[in-house]
Amino acid sequence: MRLILFLVGFMVTMSVVGQTLGRTVTEDYTAGFEKPGSVYEIPEYMGEPVPVAILSIGVSEEILAQYPELGDYRVGLGLSNITVAFMEETF
């Protein structure tokens, strides 16, 4: 009985001490270029339209042929898909 109480007490003590010793602390400093900004703060472009080429990086045509619902739901949103979605939203 004493052995069981000792083991339970030892395990509780080690778990409390282990959690305290393994803590990670990060700094709160934020540089000027890291401060949050919104894309919507950029003024609207009033000049002549400029053609833009966006490379498609992501799900291949073979995968889309096997799983057409991926294309319907734009699964695999990469940089190109996010850019196209933003352009569709703003123009």
List keywords for this structure.
single chain, 91 residues, mainly alpha, 4 helices, 0% strand
Note down, in words, how this protein is organized:
With 91 residues, the chain is mostly helical. The protein has helices at residues 2-21, 61-66, 68-72, 79-90. It has a domain at 54-91. Helices cover 47% and strands 0% of the residues. The protein is built from 4 helices and no strands. The longest helix has 20 residues, at 2-21.
- How far apart, in Å, are the first and last alpha carbons? 75 Å
The coarse overall form would be elongated
- What class would the helix/strand composition place it in? mainly alpha
Helical content band: 40-55%
Write the layout of secondary structure elements.
Blueprint: H1 2-21, H2 61-66, H3 68-72, H4 79-90
Structure at a glance:
This protein is an all-alpha fold. Helix content is 47%, strand content 0%. It is elongated and about 85 Å long.
